[in-house]
Amino acid sequence: MVKLTARHVENVAPERKERILWDDDLSGFGLRSYPSGRKVYIVQYKLHGRTRRKTLGKHGVVTADEARRGAKLVQADVARGADPSAERKARLRSPTIKALGERFLKEHVALHCKPTTLYDYRNLLRGVVNPVLGGIKVSEITFADIQTFHLKRRDTPYQANRGVMVLSKMLNLAEDWGLRAMNTNPTRRLKRYPEVEKKRYLDDSEQERLGSVLANMLASGEITRYVFAAFYLLLLTGCRLGEIQKLKWDYVTRTHLELPDSKTGRRRIPLPREGRALIDTLERREGNPYVILGGHGTGHYNDLQKPWRKIRARAGLEDVRLHDLRHTYASVAVMNGIDPFTLKEILGHKNLSTTLRYVHLSDDAVQKAAGQIANRLAATLGSVA
């Protein structure tokens, strides 16, 4: 054993076998010498009864004095309970955000979420998250990385917020899976962008225009009877798009749509007489279980968004999304005296707060209600003139 100085290390000659020279001044500090002539500084320490070694750097890149200082720092970390060697190996084995996303989809989302959620998350990761963060190691991603990603997507706040939401779920699971230290999720303190809630429903005149356009396009052959029925059923039942698009004959009774599975689980949806009469006009296709049929095959009509874009343009409703038909159903229900608790059951919401977000009363209805309140108070207070 000798003191590993720069001069001594320079004079160490390679031998036929790899060997370690230990420093006689700093216990655990050593030089590994290879037959090739390569020399590497190391530090050896013991933790929990196990001996470990950590590489400090190659001689020539790191000086003997720098390596000695590095060895002391490692020993100080070990004295505080850290394991520098294991931490380095963990960083090297750490998957990237892209790899974590694939595992997240396969081992969590596919098992615990709806297929539509899996589809949405996969697209969000591939198109939004991975191009910015996909190559970063899970163990090394920081708040600054998340903040940079969020800022780059500021022009699309909804996507930016959803990207952070999915990252938060992924990194929580990374902690559970031992890929990050517990309680280190860097998304927690990020402030999300405000999102302007889209409040859109069809008033009476717009409903009339839509009905007229649907009838004219059906008569001219621009849309099929199945497409016509799909949009009418969305309005008459308040269903989600997928619930009508993928509706099967086995789910249809005289008075209800009995869905074995939906976004919120099993649903029993009231089917009004008008809806049942409309369904009765649709022809079945042998071997095809679906109500809303496409041009051929055994599946359902695949893309109702395409005819909807043409229909809404013809009706002068370019800003109306298909989901706004569900909003319209909820608004009409409330304006006709249906209480939110009953509406919650009809729409299949888990929480009343979700139902209340769907309820958009018209200006006339609000004005009328405000007038009734003011009249009652004025009658009690007396004349103000």
- CATH topology type of the largest domain: hpI Integrase, Chain A
Order of the strands making up the biggest sheet? 1-2-3-4
| Low-confidence blocks of residues | none
- Please give the share of residues in helix: 40-55%
InterPro entries: CB (IPR044068), DNA_brk_join_enz (IPR011010), Integrase-like_cat_sf (IPR013762), Integrase_catalytic (IPR002104), Integrase_DNA-bd_sf (IPR038488), Integrase_DNA_bind_dom (IPR025166), Integrase_recombinase_N (IPR010998), Integrase_SAM-like_N (IPR004107)
Keywords: DNA integration, DNA recombination, DNA-binding
Family: Belongs to the 'phage' integrase family.
Protein name: Site-specific integrase
Describe the protein:
The chain has 385 residues and is an alpha+beta fold. Helix content is 51%, strand content 9%. It contains 16 helices and 6 strands. The protein has helices at residues 6-11, 64-79, 84-93, 97-112, 115-133, 143-152, 157-176, 204-219, 225-237, 241-245, 273-280, 305-314, 323-335, 340-347, 352-358, 363-381, and strands at 19-22, 29-33, 39-47, 50-58, 256-259, 267-270. The strands form 2 sheets. Strands 1-2-3-4 form a 4-stranded antiparallel beta sheet, with helices on one face. It is elongated and about 95 Å long. It starts with 5 loop residues before the first helix and ends with a helix. The model has no long low-confidence stretch (mean pLDDT 86).
Short synopsis of the structure:
The chain is 51% helix and 9% strand. The chain has 16 helices and six strands.
Topology:
Blueprint: H1 6-11, E1 19-22, E2 29-33, E3 39-47, E4 50-58, H2 64-79, H3 84-93, H4 97-112, H5 115-133, H6 143-152, H7 157-176, H8 204-219, H9 225-237, H10 241-245, E5 256-259, E6 267-270, H11 273-280, H12 305-314, H13 323-335, H14 340-347, H15 352-358, H16 363-381
Antiparallel strand pairs: 1-2, 2-3, 3-4, 5-6
Helix pairs in contact: 4-5, 5-7, 6-7, 9-11, 9-13, 14-15
